[in-house]
Amino acid sequence: MDRQILKNTIKEIFAGSKGILAMDESISTANKRLGAKGIPQNEEMRRKYRELIVTTPGLNQGIGGAILCDETINQKTNDGRPMADVLKEAGIIPGIKVDKGAKALAGFQNEKVTEGLDGLRERLIDYKKKGARFAKWRAVITIGKNIPTKACIEANAHALTRYAGLCQEAGIVPIVEPEVLMDGDHNLQKCYDVTEETLKILFFELYKYRIDLEGIILKPNMVLAGKESGEKNSVDDVAKATVNCFLESVPAAVPAIAFLSGGQSAQEASAHLNAINKNFKNRLPWIVAFSFARAIQQPALDVWDWEDSKCEKAQKVLARRAKFNAEARQGNYDS
Ligand code: 13P
């Protein structure tokens, strides 16, 4: 394994104040998001939407890496160029989602484990040929009555670790994503505790399996009260809880934390990221950036409504949102 290759990729992705755009929604999730806007749910519309994103002028001002899904890395723009090549030409590193989704964990009610390890070594070689230099695997941890169980967290940490090892062997940077969901009526403290436990178990597993921590990107949730809790926390309180939780559980050897947005509005996600970077500037041992999907794409999707005439406007909104998050990385975002 050439550790320097991994480090260089991470450096390039987060150069200046850039972050990651997640545009790797599965076919069913992409259909759901398009369908909610009345857009036809078919392969051509998904291709068209993704072409809109990768051809956005100025996207590279705020975005250093973009995560694709299997369908998109195999698609071309209207003029016949592979989507990954279009990103590369714009100076954006293509990445690839390689997990095969979160499936019911046998014997455990309402808990999931992410699958996709079978054949992964070979798939990574293929994706690398297609231009991917980093990958993503998402584990999902649900908070509810008597859950998460330690068994569920451990099963997901193990799969994330095995995936990370295969990525590093292939010279591909693994984005390690243990997402504690916002769904539920739990309070901020509960999210803190579950996030802390998940990260501690994850990092012990990564250590056990000899993962090079300097060659991963951690993609976690922020520490937030559950969506149905009714609890309102200030932006500064969320930033403080999130930073304290991560200082407790994430080794300083990890070069970068790139948060997911998890269902927060675009403005909330940027404001939280901004407060983390602004209020704790001198205490963060890692780059603290973003790897948002909804919080970057949704405002653009809201104006697009699949008409060619609205393409330019949607691209402007997308590039603006990306830039706002790059500003938030520096603590300079002004909502
Ligand atoms: P959201 O930012 O919409 O949570 O998506 C990030 C992501 O890639 C989830 O895997």
Automatic annotation (TrEMBL):
GO biological process: glycolytic process
Entry-linked InterPro entries: Aldolase_I_AS, Aldolase_TIM, FBA_I
Highest taxon listed in the record's lineage: Bacteria
SUPFAM superfamilies per the UniProt record, alphabetical: Aldolase
Keywords carried by this UniProt record: Glycolysis, Lyase
Enzyme class: lyase
GO molecular function: fructose-bisphosphate aldolase activity
Pathway membership, UniProt: Carbohydrate degradation; glycolysis; D-glyceraldehyde 3-phosphate and glycerone phosphate from D-glucose: step 4/4
Catalyzed reactions per annotation: beta-D-fructose 1,6-bisphosphate = D-glyceraldehyde 3-phosphate + dihydroxyacetone phosphate
EC number assigned by the record: 4.1.2.13
NCBIfam families (UniProt xref): FrucBisAld_I
PANTHER family (alphabetical): FRUCTOSE-BISPHOSPHATE ALDOLASE
Family in the record: Belongs to the class I fructose-bisphosphate aldolase family.
Entry protein name: Fructose-bisphosphate aldolase
